[in-house]
Amino acid sequence: MRKLQTQGVHHITLTGADRQSSIDFWEGVLGMPFVFDQPNLDNENEGHLYFDPGDGRLITVFTDETRKPVHDRTPTDPGCVHHLAFNVSMATHRQVVERLDERGIKHSGVKDRGFMDSIYFKDPLGLLIELACYKFEPPRGHAHADVMIEAHRIRVARGDRAIGEEHLADALELLVSRSQQTLSSDRGAKDPY
Questions:
Q1: Which of 22, 25, 58, 170 is in Cβ range 3.0-4.6 Å of 16 for a Cys bridge?
Q2: pTM for this structure?
């Protein structure tokens, strides 16, 4: 038996309401360029809109002009999607509360998650959306996941409940020391003062 190895998210498809409310939210609120539009090839009564969330992958939405937005929270039963999280820059993250408030969109305010800051709010159909901003940049040649696994190992070894900024800083130092060569014979911390 062999695995079916994935290499990243290709796209996520959501069931939307009418076409314009989908465009207004995904492009008009979240700034995702509307890049492609065609019929749903499995249901001729629906449209299929494609948006770029910023990394060249796709968020797609099936639309139907007879469906109207419902603002109730989407189901969170087992097997249902709890929320979608999108990465934003620190500069943007610092503006999220103000910009959601300008639109009258209720939100959670900033939540400190240790390794990232998050803000939650619902889309017009009740799907929980998270805008997240990492508190670190991975070293050259590494991904965010590389830092996270090292921070996790450090956290567990120390018996801490959740990843914090100290775990991240130590993970970053560890990854750099493993991957970056030096002419020094001793890379340990020093006090030159």
A1: 22
A2: 0.90
| pLDDT score at 102 | 97
Does 43 share its domain with 64? Answer: yes
- For residue 156, being part of any structural domain is answered with yes
Amino acid identity of residue 24, one-letter, is D
Residue 35 lies in a domain: yes
Strands (DSSP E) found in the chain? 11-15, 34-40, 43-51, 58-63, 83-87, 111-112, 116-122, 128-134
Tell me which amino acid residue 107 is: H
Tens digits of per-residue pLDDT, 57-88?
999 999 999 988 877 888 888 998 999 999 99
Say if residues 116 and 135 touch (Cβ distance below 8 Å).
yes
| Distance from chain centroid for Cα 189 | 34
Proportion of the chain above pLDDT 70, given as a percent: 100
The domain total for the chain is: 3
Structural domain that includes position 163: 144-179
61 near 30, Cβ under 8 Å? Answer: no
3-state helix, strand, coil in the chain (%, to 5): 25, 25, 50
pLDDT, tens digit (0-9, with 9 covering 90-100), for 2-55:
998 899 899 999 999 999 999 999 999 999 999 999 999 999 999 999 999 999
Q: Are residues 157 and 130 in the same domain?
A: no
Contact in structure between 133 and 89 (CB atoms under 8 Å): yes
CATH number, position 51: 3.10.180.10
Q: What is the DSSP letter of 130?
A: E
